[in-house]
Amino acid sequence: MAINISGISKRFGAFLALDKVDLHIQSGELLALLGPSGSGKTTLLRILGGLDRACGGTITFFGEAALGLTPRDRQVGFVFQHYSLFRHMTVRDNVAFGLDVRPRRDRLPRAVISERVARLLELVQLAPLADRYPAQLSGGQRQRVALARALAIEPKVLLLDEPFGALDAKVRKELRRWLRRLHDEMNITSIFVTHDQEEALEVADRVVVMNNGRIEQVGAPGEVYDHPASPFVYDFLGNVNRFECIISDGTAKIVSIGLTMPAIGAEPGPALAFVRPHDIELIRLDAATGDAGGGGVACARVRHIHAIGPTARIELDIEGHRFEAVMDQDRLRCLGVRAGDWCGVRLTRPRLFSSNSAALIQE
Amino acid sequence: MLAKSTASAYGGRPALQDPAWLRWTLIGTALAFLALFVALPLLTVFIEALHRGFGAYFAALVEPDALSAMWLTLLVAGIAVPLNLVFGILSAWAITKFEFLGKSFLITLIDLPFSVSPVISGMVYVLLFGLHGWFGPWLRAHDLQIVFAVPGLVLATIFVTFPFVARELIPLMQSQGIEEEEAAASLGATGWQIFWRITLPNIRWALLYGVLLCNARAMGEFGAVSVVSGHVRGLTNTMPLHVEILYNEYNFVAAFAVASLLALLALVTLAVKSVVEWRWGEDISGRRDQG
């Protein structure tokens, strides 16, 4: 176990930024802290880096209590959202800074420092720009300098705050794949903060979903996406259709679209059903009878079809209640459904949450 | 010429092109005003100082009282400016890098010397440290003299010139934020290293600019210094006070000769300030692209 966080709280005035957060981070993993702004993810990262103080709780780094340690003693590399490069220093001096400021007894000889800096600049593909100033670099280049600077001190843990937040979409994609490869090569325990679910799901080994200062769910990307533990995670990760329903006698009924599904053993009361767009099945109605042919199927009007790329997004409407389905273009072509047609709708994998406690009722 | 080319750059829109007579009237008025109120008096100082020839001019400057006034002025500025440099950096640092109770009150307090008449600030020191002042008896018992002596001059000068450095640094440090300092801390730098290697290099030109202004004012200060000096010739007279005494004695050549030195100081300050502004203007205002 690399990092053990238990019961960490942080309060800014009346605002509770972190509410008794517990988290265990494995050695060598790449972990994403994902959440909307104000969810506490950056605050948690800053507390780990020693830039903010926690109001309560404990953190251990590799078994050693860390909260009393200075950033220097924690051996943590921090990459800031806006890079925070030293504007009056060249790229080379920026990267060397962490080695230059070591106390004399720990400081490496000058030649070793410059050799290591050269190697790092090679690693982040910036060797030709070593004598430039930060103002002369592009955003992606600055971010790589920031990364090289953090890596120079050979940190045991690398913390990255929205590392790709200020970059344009294309550079962002390149850089995050590059970061993933870099992590696989160097194998430093790394934690990065993001509000971009795609980024978190693509890059991280495990994703920590945060909301209102609490952790909603921790898990591998696929696990978090396929089995969200709460309505919040469902809403936050990917597109989802949300239906209000009522449970009675072991069945849940979505009143608005007139569908029922089994909810065996569930407490009677109001509940929420979540269905991903690709878990909504469209069925061609029998043209003559208008019969969908079986239970669990509702009749919907196709309002609009967005067909760009390999998948099509289909806007459906049942008595004014709109929702969305996604399927392959090919399948849609086979079905032959067009905007304005009627078709049958089946919910293949709904998940039910209690409205009162937000607890999962049934997969 | 300039106005014309600017107007054509905007496509010659009539709304931006004032008639020539209006342009020249405005420019002429501004120039005449500057000539009458700035250039002419400055010129007069040098003409009056030199109108009995260079011999009389230098005689007035090397006269013992004049030399002692120059020495005293350098001494007072030499103590007050470095102290204000340190105080200015400390207060700007505290205001921009930390959140604390009474911060806005502190900012107001820093501006106070700008809004209070220098005479009043001089009198405050007399009331505090004078013979019959609050600390007077204690100071006399310990054989310390502040008012009518060099320490009083230094105190009054520090008070009057305090805002210059801090005022120059606060907006710059506010715009620079604390991100670079945090980055340095995360890389293991100590507070001292952060200050010398990150903060100071980022503020150095604004600091120089503030020090220049502070120094010009410290050497030229009259009101506050006049109150606490006691006008003891050769002992507590700074250059501005010495000029006044000579002038009141109808010794115009000597008065203007010393005054011309102060005027030269002002011109040099202005020149260095312009160079700093021209060369490092963006660093001073914090407009340069954030690294």
Low-pLDDT sequence parts of chain B: 1-10
Strand order of the largest sheet of chain A: 6-7-8-3-9-10
Number of strands of chain B: 0
| Chain oligomer state | heterodimer
State the shape of chain B: globular
Distance between the amino and carboxyl termini of chain A: 31 Å
Please give the alpha-carbon distance between the first and last residues of chain B: 39 Å
- What proportion of the residues of chain B is helical, as a percent range? over 70%
Quote the average pLDDT of chain A: 88
Helix coverage percent of residues of chain A?
25-40%
Largest interface: A-B, 28 and 20 residues
- Helix-strand makeup class of chain A: alpha+beta
Q: What's the helix-strand series of chain B?
A: HHHHHHHHHHHHH
Structural class of chain B: mainly alpha
Strand content of chain A: 35-45%
**Which range does the strand content of chain B fall in?**
under 5%
Low-pLDDT segments of chain A: none
Name the features.
heterodimer, A: 363 residues, alpha+beta, six-stranded mixed sheet, six-stranded antiparallel sheet, 10 helices, 21 strands, 26% helix, B: 291 residues, mainly alpha, 0% strand
Descriptive report:
Chain A has helices spanning 41-49, 71-74, 91-100, 110-123, 139-152, 169-186, 197-203, 221-226, 231-236, 329-335, and strands at residues 3-12, 15-25, 30-34, 56-61, 64-65, 76-79, 157-161, 189-194, 206-211, 214-219, 241-248, 251-254, 259-262, 269-275, 280-283, 298-308, 311-318, 321-328, 342-347, 351-354, 360-362. Chain A has 363 residues and is of the alpha+beta class. A six-stranded mixed sheet of chain A has the order 6-7-8-3-9-10, with helices on both faces. In chain A, strand 11 and strand 12 (251-254) form a beta hairpin. In chain A, helix 4 (110-123) packs across helix 5 (139-152). The longest helix of chain A is centred in the middle third of the chain and has 18 residues, at 169-186. Chain A is elongated. The two termini of chain A are 31 Å apart. The mean pLDDT of chain A is 88. By secondary structure, chain B is mainly alpha-helical. In chain B, 79% of the residues lie in helices and 0% in strands. Chain B has 13 helices and no strands. Chain B has helices at 2-9, 20-50, 53-62, 64-97, 103-115, 118-129, 136-141, 150-176, 179-186, 191-220, 223-229, 239-248, 252-285. The interface between A and B is medium-sized, with 28 and 20 residues.
